[in-house]
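Page 42, continued from yesterday. The earlier attempt failed because a stray header line got pasted into the input along with the sequence. Redoing it now with the clean sequence only.
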Amino acid sequence: MRRKSRVITLGNVKIGGDAPISVQSMTNTDTRDVKATLNQIKKLEDAGCEIIRVAVPDMDAAKKLGEIKKGIKIPLIADIHFDYRLALKSIQEGVDGLRINPGNIGDKWKVKEVVNSAKDKGLPIRIGVNAGSLDKDLWEKYGGPTAEAMVESALMHIGILEDMNFNQIKVSLKASDVERTVDAYRMLSEKVDYPFHIGISEAGTLFSGTIKSAIGIGILLNEGIGDTLRVSLTADPVEEIKVGFEILKALRIRQTNPEVISCPTCGRCEIDLESIALKIEDAVKSLKSPIRIAVMGCVVNGPGEAREADLGVAGGKGVGLIFRKGKAVKKVREEEICDALVDEVKKLLATDSH
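This time it went through. Structure tokens are written below.
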């Protein structure tokens, strides 16, 4: 069962409650380079990105946010550290939300100015706690960036905003360590009802980071914790979106495009299964339908898996038997499998749309 959280609104996207768990990313372009930033966001939008965050390191970057906002379709979050004036300028430029830690903005009056400005515009604030940048006092109190230290940091920042009667809050508690991150979210989930942005920080490169993120985010989602997510990879941000949706798909939480399952191959496989599976996956990746397609390479498990899927093929001895909704519909030569299966996908989608 999903954790009950209050709902906040970020542009046209709702986060928390029963709202779909959204997938977001962060640009790695220089925000001051509007053209490069817009080009990257367009690619992210095409990949399905639902919320985008940009770094705002200085006032020059903040001044570009309005232009960026006008050129995109999804909510824009300004990532702010230390300088409250950057937050005020970002709000003035029309962003949909802020990512700040009130404790590092400085004097209370500075935080209050940001909070009042966010209130006036109806903008939410994400409190982003990161194990790598915890307050020195907490580090000393807990002997390091423990889950308990992260939770105390989050509660301290939440308290600052609540004391100013601000509750349009979402929270993240990220570390590069899976177990510590999961523990922190579990602890905080028992103390507050604000929506959570989940992820594993500094997860790593595409291969290792995907595995680490899938484990950490997957554990949390399977326990009902999480309202929006980012997969943090040292890679093209588009890959973060792909992985995020695959995690949701694997847990049957959100299925926005076809799922292709295929067997791992073994000595019984008598067709070029890897090539066929990759071609089919590429051919259907842009389709907006949650159908399940099975690409199987032998007569042992193949027919059963193919029958259970919406569409499937069981291959053997240079041929493939195509299944649709559990029934065998045709036998084709190996070189015809891809085209035949894609053709059946189109027929199925056309039938379902009527």
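Notes: The mean pLDDT is 90.
Reminder to self: strip header lines before submitting.
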